[in-house]
Amino acid sequence: MKGLDDIVKIEKVAVIGAGVMGSGIAAHVANAGLPVTLLDIVPEEAENRNIITETAVQNMLKPVRMGSPTPLMHRKNARLITTGNIEDHLDALGDADLIVEVVLEKLEIKHDVFKKIDKVRKKNSLVASNTSTIPRNQLVRRMPKAFASDFIITHFFNPPRYLRLLEIVAGKEVSKKKIDALTEFCDLKLGKEVVICNDTPGFIGNRIGTYWTLIGMVEAVKMGLTVEEADAIMGRPIGAPKTGIFALGDVVGLDLIPHVTESMSSNLPKNDLYNIGVKEQNKLGIDKILSSMIADGYTGRKGKGGFYRLNSDSGKKVKEARNLKTGEYQTASKISLESIKTAKKGLRNLVEYDDKGGEYAWKVLSKTLTYAASLVPEITDNIVNVDLAMKNGFLWKKGPFEMLDDLGPSWFTSRISKEGIKVPELLEKVAEGNFYEEKGKDVLYFGTDGKYSKIRRPEGYLTATDVKRGQKPIFRNPSASLWDMDDNIILVEFHSKMNSMDPLIMEALSEAADQCESGNYSGVVIGNDGSNFSAGANLGLSSFVANVGAWEEAEKFVFGGQMAFMMLKHGDFPVVGASSGLAIGGGCEVLLACDAVQAHSESYIGLVEVGVGLVPAWGGCKEMITRWNNDPKQPRGPMATIMKIFQNVGTAKVATSAQEAKELHFLRQEDEITMNRARVLYEAKAKCLKMVENYEAPLPNEHFLPGPSGKAALDLAVDDLVKAGHATPHDIIVTKELSHILSGGDTDPTDTVSDDRILEMERKGIIKLMKTEGTMDRVEHMLTTGKPLRN
């Protein structure tokens, strides 16, 4: 960046503050492939003056919590982080294009840091603060005008790797060019949904989100609900994460709640609904409950527990919930209310249901949605930003105004009026209408001027919902649909439960192939808007088939899947997978059959069949053999590659990012990774169009495999695991079937094994295992508990 007119790229970043948030931001910048400098203070009497930042980088390689991926998408990304301290290495900020401050939420500390930054930063570098509560006008007060013209609030949500929301607050003195440069960087490089906010306390997400949790606690205490009841209602039934209200507090950290409440409260007018809620909270003694818990070390998941805890006194972990009246813990109850069941029919059904669940849902949502409607245009210029903030920051399925449309704005207005709640001006304006309308392919939103305007999104955003809008499917069955993406490209969308694979999905894939082979279309993209690309084969169907002994149907299911995937792989048209979330088992095998994959960075890919007592049978073994044998970095000879595959598939290893998936060969090195989820389908389609021009289908492969001697070596490795207590009796049965397939069966090492022969062994292997009691026990246990059985 040479000067004001050349600000188009951010190529080097510095982060000051290596706490949970600062280190998370630094890790995510490294995930994007950019060099980042991480600085913090020098602790008193520290022998290692960089101990804080060096420890932070070490922690980036550890899961945030048990079973979750690490802040770094790949361990090699740590090489992009340079550590230091603000006393010895402040000059390192001199070549940074973006400097992000992530220190304590105290104004005097931030001002001190800003003065230090301003002395060493280069001209026109951007300075950002990750403050969550302090208004920008206070942060730039007493700072030079040149500093203010380069200063922007960038409010990341924690953890930065996973939560897509990034709120930006920029003053009038910041040029549009600088705001656009930062927005583009955060969108394309960091994968963020960037929302422009006004300079108000809490911005958008925290202003509404913390009010929701505040009112959620207040109404729960007033109604005498248990924490389990409140969370059961205020979670999935309203389209929020299952943590609901109280468990969300445990995740965030109960010790942070008083600080956020105080900061918000002191910066808002006394008559703001937020402060009215705080008064009610204190009157009910909720503030004292929190203070007592914090003092006793019950700060949430990072402490001894919070509103929930795991008790291991009996030798077995038992989830317990806190009694809000007595402060005692008791075994957490599983809540069953009719209102929760009826919520599946829609939000209106929930809030109108006559039980305590329906009453609680209405009391919290009526106040929360009213508050949200009253804040536009104070906190942002339009309702779209509010909905984006709540969906991407608090992971609501729908934003407040989308929820109001579900309820019916006029119905909602009428009901709150009868209950004496003041109706916000925006609700009065929309009257009998809705906040959103569809017009052909466009979506319009209701503005503060009383008119509808087209929603304008960044170029390159495309979702399955966008593709489907205004058209009927080319083909549809209960599990999958085919859609016209324009430019002669078909979108195959899975919509079964968890996008699990079943015969109907195979039917849809075959139909897509037929459409291309007949000349109606030129290429195929496989993708969807779900949280997961595909969670694998439908285990419920597999269990049913096995229990009734319908082995002919089972063989048809397996063979049909192989044929569908082979049509995708060897058809005379390109197929591009657009992955995001889980792509495991059969979902992984779909991607392996594609000519290319455009993967969201958060793609978790793996062949996990062994965990339920099965083996990959839709070409997973075949494709792994091909890919590992074609890796020039692997030692020559069949045994080295087969052992690597056996280790990965035999332990049901899942890549925890798209970057790691490349290392495990679930993705090819040439497959591209998209950081922003909203851009995956657009880029997958662009890739497919590019491939159409000179497409040549790949030919079937012939493989050199070690045969019986190779199988014996693999089985010996399993025997060693058994002796060490790391493998169970049924593991032996399953892995012996896997070793048989990977080694090529009874082949001679000097002969080649065809793709068809490996597919045949996959088919026979999976059917053989389905007939064993141990495998069926694993399948049933997974269906019942969601966890693997070690039998």
Automatic annotation (TrEMBL):
Alphabetical list of SUPFAM superfamilies matching this protein: 6-phosphogluconate dehydrogenase C-terminal domain-like, ClpP/crotonase, NAD(P)-binding Rossmann-fold domains
PANTHER family, alphabetized: 3-HYDROXYACYL-COA DEHYDROGENASE FAMILY PROTEIN, 3-HYDROXYACYL-COA DEHYDROGENASE-RELATED
EC number(s) recorded for this UniProt protein: 1.1.1.35
Keywords in alphabetical order: Fatty acid metabolism, Lipid metabolism, NAD, Oxidoreductase
Domain 3-hydroxyacyl-CoA dehydrogenase C-terminal: 202-309
GO molecular function ontology, one term from the record: (3S)-3-hydroxyacyl-CoA dehydrogenase (NAD+) activity
Organism: uncultured marine thaumarchaeote KM3_55_A11
Primary gene name: fadN
Keyword Zinc: no
Domain 3-hydroxyacyl-CoA dehydrogenase NAD binding: 12-200
GO annotation terms (biological process): fatty acid beta-oxidation
Principal EC category: oxidoreductase
Protein name as catalogued: 3-hydroxyacyl-CoA dehydrogenase, putative (FadN)
Pfam families linked to this entry: 3HCDH (PF00725), 3HCDH_N (PF02737), ECH_1 (PF00378)
Pathway(s) this gene product operates in, as recorded in its UniProt entry: Lipid metabolism; fatty acid beta-oxidation
